[in-house]
Design goal:
Blueprint lengths: L2 H26 L3 E4 L2 H7 L3 E4 L8 E7 L8 E8 L4 E2 L1 H4 L4 E5 L5 E5 H15 L4 E2 L3 E7 L8 E7 L1 H4 E3 L1
Parallel strand pairs: 3-6
Antiparallel strand pairs: 1-2, 2-3, 4-5, 4-10, 6-7, 7-11, 8-9, 9-10
Length: 167
């Protein structure tokens, strides 16, 4: 295994452990969480389904994220995985309706995927893949890490207090 493969393996392993902790917190708060199939995860970018009203509520396609960087205080949203190849990011093309993100402080927030996508669409229409700051969110071009070294990504950062409901 090469260095990039090691990085990817470690990132995936850590991601699965953190996702399990987030799912446990959702369940502890009274929500029902059902894991997505491998196909739903790969094709639709859905990690699972949240149900609010016991078994009678409609399951909501959900994507889970966690922030582990020192500055991970906001909801992270991948718009472009690789700007040069016009490869849209997992979050932007995903089919989730609910976006759950645990920030570095440990706070867990749920946000409307549609709202995040609508704000992203407005930004892309006006500014393309350029960095820009707004009062409660910003878009930033960053360098890829691990197996994505050498790429430029476009990420959105949204204030959880403005766009999310605390779990």
């Amino acid at each position: 295994m090469g260095a990039a493969d090691d990085h990817t393996h470690n990132r995936v392993s850590t991601g699965l452990k953190e996702e399990a902790k987030i799912i446990e917190r959702l369940r502890d708060s009274g929500l029902i969480f059902t894991k997505a199939t491998e196909e739903q995860d790969k094709l639709d970018k859905i990690d699972g389904f949240v149900t609010y009203d016991g078994n009678e509520g409609e399951p909501i396609p959900t994507q889970i994220k966690f922030r582990d960087s020192a500055i991970g205080k906001d909801i992270l949203y991948e718009v472009y995985k690789n700007i040069a190849t016009d490869t849209q990011g997992r979050d932007y093309i995903g089919k989730s309706d609910l976006y759950v993100c645990r920030v570095k402080s440990g706070g867990l927030y749920m946000a409307s995927s549609k709202k995040l996508k609508d704000l992203t669409d407005r930004h892309l229409k006006k500014y393309g893949c350029k960095a820009r700051e707004y009062p409660y969110y910003m878009f930033k071009v960053t360098d890829g890490k691990g197996d994505e070294i050498g790429t430029k990504k476009l990420l959105g950062f949204f204030s959880p207090k403005k766009f999310g409901d605390k779990v």
